[in-house]
Design goal:
Number of domains: 1
Number of strands: 13
Radius of gyration: 20 Å
Strand content: 5-15%
Shape: globular
CATH topology: TIM Barrel
Catalytic activity: Hydrolysis of terminal, non-reducing beta-D-glucosyl residues with release of beta-D-glucose
Distance between the termini: 17 Å
GO biological process, one term: cellulose catabolic process
Protein name: Beta-glucosidase
InterPro entries: GH, GH_1_N_CS, Glyco_hydro_1, Glyco_hydro_1_beta-glucosidase
CATH superfamily: Glycosidases
Keywords: Carbohydrate metabolism, Cellulose degradation, Glycosidase, Hydrolase, Polysaccharide degradation
Helix content: 25-40%
Structural class: alpha/beta
């Protein structure tokens, strides 16, 4: 697309609610959040922001902000519960697409943002290779319904995070703690991406991306041990999910005592039209102090932090984007920053406003870094703020607020924050 995409981003389970309405099936997050002790304060996404019933209000907020794109995710269990096509579920997204287009907002759907149908998890989830073909079938169903109006698609969101938090460490759904034995979920997600890319193309999709969570990796020192640990972490977090797609080969996994899969690489490396990059912060890595992984997170100090405790390093976005260009050269397709944002402890003032100067500073710094990367020759074609709304923040429940719009989770009242108004003014000058 020739027009730069300025947008906001959300995910189905985090905002939709309506988990038992209109034939929606059960997702792994429905199961996980209702297990005691899994989510902070026992919060669930049963209601979330109630976006399912408030789409008109939320689209009006986007239109008022002045964005020209909206990245949202499609709920697999809403569209295909029990392996059956649910017309009411498809109808919701059909109407959403039409309503966005009516406001001049480009819909950019993500097919999988972690809400796997529970019945597929019961068959092994992403540890089961068969899921890759089932994902492609689901992609075809959605594309045949929407591809006449939706040109840009994202297959998967952050397969690294889903593997690491959901299957290796157990802090996200489905809550498995397999450590390095979770690595097959990387291969199966990438196979699913490749097969879905082919299915989307067959249905008429014009642009296909994957959104990978990427991080610049900083060694804690120049010691050989720390440098080796940083290289291992870069391999696991970044290269494991970018190399097979962009180069047709896996990186060396010997640091993890594993052999890289050799099957399906022709499918995984099916050409894509853009690489989605989700950036939040760099990662500083040291030699391991225990044996489970060949690295340790050494933490980053000397920078402001978000409410999550994440360091705010705008220059890291420039480092990441230029580093991707340096690593992949002509193999790197156009890049879209598909998530970037920060959590802050936002409160409504007595006068009804929400002032969030830290988020304004975050956006200002990261947008400057983005523009600098573009001037330095990186073909960046889109930027999506995470998130439009305060929402259900996975294992943190409703305790971390990333939104440009404040949501009162008791009344569901939406209040645009000062960052919303700042970004509106910024976009007015683009």
């Amino acid at each position: 697309m020739s027009t730069f995409l300025w947008g906001t981003a959300t995910a189905a389970y985090q905002i939709e609610g309506a988990v038992a309405e209109d034939g929606r099936g059960t997702s792994i997050w429905d199961t996980f959040t209702h297990e005691p002790g899994r989510v902070r304060d026992g919060h669930t996404g049963d209601v979330a922001c109630d976006h399912y019933h408030r789409t008109a209000e939320d689209i009006a907020l986007m239109s008022g902000l002045g964005v020209n794109a909206y990245r949202f995710s499609i709920s697999w269990p809403r569209v295909q519960p029990g392996g059956r096509t649910n017309e009411k579920g498809l109808g919701f997204y059909d109407r959403l697409v039409d309503d966005l287009l009516a406001e001049g907002i480009t819909p950019v759907p993500t097919l999988f943002h972690w809400d796997l149908p529970q019945e597929l998890q019961d068959e092994g989830g992403w540890m089961n290779r068969d899921i890759s073909g089932k994902f492609a079938d689901y992609a075809a169903i959605v594309a045949h319904r929407l591809a006449d109006r939706v040109g840009t698609w994202i297959t998967l969101n952050e397969p690294f995070v889903h593997m690491a938090f959901g299957y290796a460490l157990g802090v996200h759904a489905p809550g498995q703690s397999l450590l390095l034995d979770a690595l097959p979920t990387a291969h199966h997600q990438l196979l699913a991406h490749g097969l879905a890319t082919q299915a989307l193309r067959a249905a008429g999709a014009r642009e296909i991306l994957i959104s990978n969570n990427c991080t610049p990796v900083w060694p804690a020192s120049d010691s050989p041990e720390d440098l080796a640990a940083a290289e291992a972490y870069d391999t696991l977090h970044n290269r494991l999910f970018n190399d097979p797609i962009l180069t047709g080969a896996y990186p060396d996994l010997s640091a993890f005592g594993k052999d890289a899969p050799q099957d399906g690489l022709d499918v995984i490396s099916t050409p894509i039209d853009g690489l989605g990059v989700n950036y939040y912060n760099p990662t500083r890595i040291a030699a391991p102090r225990q044996d489970a992984f060949p690295f340790d997170d050494a933490g980053i100090t000397g920078y402001p932090t978000t409410a999550f405790g994440w360091p705010v390093v705008p220059d890291g976005l420039h480092e990441l984007l230029t580093g991707l260009k340096q690593r992949y050269g002509q193999r790197l397709p156009p890049v879209y920053v598909t998530e970037n944002g920060c959590s802050q402890p936002d409160d409504v003032s007595p006068d009804g406003t929400v002032d969030d100067p830290e988020r304004i500073a975050f956006l200002d710094g990261h947008l400057a870094a983005l523009q600098r990367a573009r001037r330095d020759g990186v073909d960046v074609r889109g930027y999506f703020v995470w998130s439009l709304l305060d929402n259900f923040e996975w294992a943190e429940g409703y305790n971390q607020r990333f939104g440009l719009v404040h949501v009162d989770f008791e009344t569901l009242r939406r209040t645009p924050k000062s960052s919303y108004h700042w970004l509106k003014a910024y976009l007015g000058h683009q």
